[in-house]
Amino acid sequence: MFAIIETGGKQYRVSPNEKIIVEKLVGDAGAKITLEKVLLVKNDQGEINFGGPLVKGAQVEAEIVKTFKNDKVIIFKKRRRQNSRRKRGHRQQQTLLKILSIKA
């Protein structure tokens, strides 16, 4: 059984007892959350439910394992022959989720 969910503007394929890294979600470590933007569900019998765009009544239960910052990404801008350059760094905050169950 698996589902395709949307969170943080991205889509993820999830199945029970799987861990995924998503954009930062509000909540403390150990908190249980419900993801309701489910785009597709495939059950154990092979039946596929497509949403238009969302599957009605489908939910994915997940637990927040931890929140952390990703590796630093360097942003470097330079204009040639202008003696102009700018260097910035950015670390995106992310959340590690453990998928508990999928309810179709």
Describe the structure.
By secondary structure, the protein is an all-beta fold. It has one domain (2-103). 0% of the residues lie in helices and 62% in strands. The protein is built from no helices and ten strands. The chain has strands at 2-7, 10-14, 19-23, 32-35, 38-42, 48-50, 59-69, 73-79, 84-90, 93-103. The strands form three sheets. It has a four-stranded antiparallel sheet with strand order 2-1-5-6, with no helix packed on it.
Number of helices: 0
Kindly state the mean pLDDT as a whole number? 94
Gross geometry? elongated
Helical fraction equals: under 10%
Major β-sheet annotation = 4 strands, antiparallel
**Structural class by secondary-structure content:** mainly beta
Q: Which range does the strand content fall in?
A: over 45%
Strands across the major sheet, in which order? 2-1-5-6
Query: In angstroms, what separates the terminal alpha carbons?
Result: 10 Å
In the residues, how many domains can be counted? Answer: 1
Radius of gyration: 19 Å
Order of helices and strands: EEEEEEEEEE
Strand tally, please? 10
Low-confidence stretches: none
